[in-house]
Write a structure and sequence with these properties.
The chain is an alpha+beta fold. The protein has helices at residues 2-12, 18-46, 54-58, 63-82, 86-111, 120-124, 132-157, 162-179, 181-196, 236-240, 267-282, 316-336; strands spanning 204-206, 211-217, 221-226, 231-235, 245-246, 253-261, 292-298, 303-311. A 5-stranded antiparallel beta sheet has the order 4-3-2-1-5. Strands 6-8-7 form a 3-stranded antiparallel beta sheet, covered by helices on one side. Strand 7 (292-298) and strand 8 form a beta hairpin. The radius of gyration is 38 Å and the shape is rod-shaped.
């Protein structure tokens, strides 16, 4: 800035009338407006911001801001050449400085977009590349910080007391923070969900109060499509502070069946039935090592037979179909072995 002012000061000392100065100032503006595409192109090519392909250079994030910069510079030099008074010159200098600050902020903001050529290589080297929501959150926060810094610099450039402003904002910020505690908790909860990834879109989860398929995850809440086809919107803070069961991530489904046989059932019938069930389960596509068929307990109302196995079937409808088929077969085996199931009952003996 000082070098430019020194150069202009030397030119303005030349003995020129007002008409000539105005004419030269207009020519300076026209010259910069005509030359700005070429100057921007040469500058990007010299510093190798993009490769030598002219189309790619024109699509560069720096090409448009550089054109704006040269246009502003031309207008600034033209005004300086006019030899205006000091009061107006101070206003022009401040306007030029603020314009440059805003232009630099615009360039940095563009460079911090998710699809930026500067950030893409960085995200590709991390696990964040697989989650666009996290990338968007990070870049949004970075751009917000840049805008805040630019705002503080502009306010300082305008001559305002930054310390007093920060103190005032501190009190206002404290009031807002107290009023927005729940919102802040939900935003933090959303960040935790996106980073920790306890579940993803389309997965079947169960929370303390809801169960269903995850339809949407935002920074404030998570939406679940429940089994009765309603949509539950749960605040992220509630999900983070409670346990979540992700049924989609289970490797095997476990099936448990408890049968109570009547006391009149003979021991041989119980033994034959358990053996038949064991053979039956081996015919299905289930984990053979997980099959358990045992005469486990003697209950108040009869003999308890415990049946358990695991299957790789994850789809709920297929899982229920498997259970139904096995239940039908077990009922057939009960009929085959002439065994009746017991129901809760008590026998009372009266002593004469």
């Amino acid at each position: 800035m000082d070098n430019i002012n020194l150069f202009i000061e030397k030119i303005t000392t030349l003995e020129l009338n007002t008409f000539t100065r105005v004419l030269i100032s207009i020519l300076i503006i026209i010259l910069f407006f005509i030359a700005r595409p070429l100057l921007s192109y040469i500058l990007i090519k010299v510093f190798k911001i993009r490769d030598s392909n002219s189309e790619k250079i024109k699509k560069s994030a720096f090409y448009k801001p550089l054109k704006i910069f040269f246009a502003i510079l031309g207008i600034y030099l033209a005004i300086l050449f006019l030899g205006v008074n000091e009061k107006f010159l101070d206003i022009v200098n401040k306007a030029f400085s603020i314009s440059i600050i805003l232009l630099i902020t615009y360039v940095i903001s563009n460079a911090l977009k998710p699809d930026s050529i500067f950030l893409k290589p960085f995200f590709k080297r991390t696990t964040l590349n697989s989650d666009p929501k996290i990338i968007k959150l990070i870049t949004t926060c970075l751009r917000a910080i840049i805008f805040c810094i630019a705002g503080v610099i502009v306010i300082s450039e305008l001559g305002y007391d930054i310390n007093g402003l920060i103190a005032g904002l501190g009190l206002s910020g404290l009031t807002i923070a107290l009023a927005a505690q729940d919102t802040a908790k939900n935003l933090f909860g959303g960040l935790v969900i996106l980073l920790d990834k306890p579940f993803a879109l389309g997965e079947w989860i169960e929370t303390q109060n809801y169960e269903g398929i995850v339809e949407e995850i935002t920074f404030r809440s998570t939406r679940i499509r429940t089994w009765d086809d309603s949509v539950a919107t749960i605040p992220n803070s509630e999900i983070v502070n409670s346990s979540v069961v992700n049924w989609t991530k289970m490797n095997l489904r476990r099936v448990k069946i408890n049968l109570i046989l009547e006391f009149k059932t003979k021991l041989k019938q119980v033994c034959d039935f358990t053996n038949d069930v064991q053979v039956l389960l081996n015919e299905y596509d289930i984990e053979k090592d997980s099959i358990i068929v045992k005469f486990s307990d003697i209950e108040d109302s009869g003999y308890k037979v415990y049946i358990s196995f695991k299957t790789k079937i994850k789809k709920y409808s297929d899982y229920m179909e498997l259970k139904e088929n096995i239940n039908y077969k077990i009922m057939q085996l009960l009929e085959k072995n002439k065994i009746d199931l017991a129901y809760p009952s008590q026998t009372i003996y009266v002593k004469k």
